[in-house]
Amino acid sequence: MPAYPLPPVQPRPTADPQDVVLIANGDLRLSANQQCWPAQQEMESQLGQAVRAAGYRVVRAHPVKKNQGHGFISSQKEGMKVFATIDPNCRLMVAEAVWQYSHHVLHGLITHKGPILTVANWSGTWPGLVGMLNLNGSLTKAGVSYSTLWSEDFADASFQNRLQEWCDQGQITHPTDHVTPLDQVRVPAAERRLGQALAEQLQREKAILGVFDEGCMGMFNAIIPDHLLQPTGVYKERLSQSALYYETTRVADEEARQVRQWLENKGLTFLTGPDPERHLTDQQILEKCKMYVAAVRIADDFGCEAIGIQYQQGLKDLLPASDLVEGLLNNSQRPPVRSRDGRRILFRGRPVTHFNEVDECAGLDGLMTDRIHRAMGQPVENTLHDLRWGDWDASGTVRDYVWVFLISGSAPPAHFVGGWKGASSERQPAMYFPKGGGTLKGISKPGEIVWSRIFIENDRLNMDLGRAAVVALPEEETQRRWQATTPQWPIMHAVTYGVSRDQMMARHKANHIQVAYAQSAADADKAMLAKASMAEALGMQVFLCGTRKTGRPWQPS
Fold first, then answer.
1. Which end of the chain has fewer CB atoms within 10 angstroms, the N or the C?
2. Is 184-545 a CATH 3.60.10.10 domain?
3. pTM of the model
4. pLDDT digits (tens, 9 = 90+) for 299-334
């Protein structure tokens, strides 16, 4: 028998029983990794002290790349090399002070056999908690067991006690008694019938999500597999961003100028300047108005009820940021777009629902929200936000804990104080967007909202829903929160009913949260219950989180 040469197998090191092996996953963009690296270094120093206090020691699994100015894993191929050197049975900590691309490390976490702990800093400036929530949602979808922690300084007693528990036992859990399965809730007959009827209609007549390239920024949790999506009656039209780019180049300058003129007539303020490296320029605005027209026409071409543009990779090297486009699409009142032959106004008087960052979970949620709210006579504009950060109101105006919901670029002006007149468009940060492009920024108006999130667990679609209020804060406090996060982006001050900061972090399976207004608290309750019933009829496992505005639970009294 011939003897075939066998591939060499490098033995993996065996971790010491007192070791906690640490990895730091990062962005794909070098500029983001470099800017966020000092915050990561500070976090790792604090974590090292906390782990030592627990009687263990931190061992970094990969070196700092001095030639690049950071110590993050910045690609999937790098992540695979790192995991090839890690003891698969060790205690493994994923420490995040930055937005991270989950697919860089997901492969290694899926096959890791030892305890996994995801940890994030609690900071608005450094979005580790946003990155960690995305990783948590991705791990949940992949069926990976993990524990999770977060802290402002990693020195408080609660964090230290839970860290000790994980180091000693390999697992920690957080109480989630604010979560109630829908089958334990009494849903009024009218809302249940409406939800069921809309689900039946969707499954019978079907609808299309237009997906401009999947997998934005490593968000594995944002991709719904076809075998889970199709039973809802929703199917993907897989579109290419190159087609969007080509269609953008075909829109005439005059048509784009008419879009801008419409926006300025409505009161939108463009904050422009002469330097495209630092400012929003007239040429960037012109290109964005062209992309808006192109996106609406492609949605019409393919019969899409909702579309999602990836943008962050690919298009960012060709065009200014798509955020202005995305905010326009999600608004009922927006510049009219005619068909190519000029005979029809496309999607007249209604949004072309857009799911930012091509998050398909948000796309399905947005499609459902549009149908529920339209049927109930409620505002149909909805959007996702990043669950970016939260803090107590420093002004003392609001006694409750106030979340900062802050999407990375745009929200529909129907959500803003003053509508179009309260909206502005500012240049996206150069760290992320080298070719510029404008946001669609504003302060969300006070009112009652429904929040929700579709996620995947145990190979099944799930939906969490809850109720919240958008509150008004003094200008000084709003500016404090903007300056602590990203001042170019739209902001929503949200108070979640019956869901604390730690309960939200323990339960939420995504960096994104979907929001929609209702005309009153009672209307919001009804809209939430109708959407919950629709989701259940579509085959999802549905959970209500928190309480009513009054503090009463959702269970039957």
1. N
2. no
3. 0.97
4. 999 999 999 998 767 788 899 999 999 999 999 999
